[in-house]
Automatic annotation (TrEMBL):
Residues 208-319 form the SMODS-associated and fused to various effectors domain. This is SMODS-associated and fused to various effectors domain-containing protein. The lineage of its organism: Bacteria, Pseudomonadati, Aquificota, Aquificia, Aquificales. The chain crosses the membrane at residues 12-29, 35-52. Keywords: Membrane, Transmembrane, Transmembrane helix. It holds the Pfam family SAVED. The keyword Acyltransferase does not apply. InterPro entries: SAVED (IPR040836).
Amino acid sequence: MKFIENLNSNPLFTFGGYMGAIGGLIADFSGIPYAYLGALGFAGSLASIGIWQEYKKHKLYEKPFLPIPVVINISNPADSKNALNQLSNVIEREGFKDHLKNLEKYFAIDKDNLIFEYKGDIFDKEKLKDFLKILKHEIEKLERKIPQGDQFYIAYIGPVSVSILVGAIFAQDAVKIFQYDKSINGYKNVADIKDRIIKENIDTLEKFDFIEVIKENNEKAVLAIDISSHKINFNSSAIQSFGDIFYLKSKESKGTISYNDNWIRYIQEIFFTINKLQTNYKEIKLVYSIPISIGLGLGMAIQNYWKILLTNYQQGEYKDLIYTDEVQYFL
């Protein structure tokens, strides 16, 4: 039984056993009245504490998975600790009482292990790549500390461009993605991703219209993805000078995605389109007006296998950031 295995490795329970055996012998030799009973009582107390600890941990083990809240902040002044507390509140409402305390008490995971901040310039590619390697390493360390299955609850704060790179780190994981909602000054779960759901084959586009803006059989192509408030500027030289141009235009007329909409379907359709394009083009440049949560999910899907140039929108321009296949995630 898992409970017995963990109990035998509990330091207090083990130490209590040694104290009961060795302390009892010493007490017998000392000749002090009731010393044996005292040693036995002390040893029993230690063992009882160990049993209680493992029982509490075992109750957590009974659940099919444990949520691991993670906040990833990329060069943003927002309060990462506040974001973590909000994720914790969500998890507690799901029935995991005192979750942050339990993670620290039973799994040696404290709050600082759950917040990852990059404070540099995202255009410093070497520094950014080093951060992503460290992030991947730290996420794997968290997974090793949880004996049963885990699911990451992710709050990402930062530019969409880097969210795609971050998403690739969680490609093999079960995740819940949370999008910040200004109206409640908090986070809402918009996507629950498990297995290969974001790579499932689809036959038609339901969320987008696919438009061929310029097709001249170049070796490179631009895919413009338009969901959020700012509209893609097709007159930008960053778009016009690269190659053929294709456009995924959201059918949603509100200029953004409803929190109740099927966010996973958007990710599936973007991945489906990129997958088709990469068979005909050596390079694909992505320009986008999309929520950061879509970026995270897209990164989980495309990872770093294809030559895809990510861009960062700032000051009205789409600036080249990095190719996805430049990033190697292992130290």
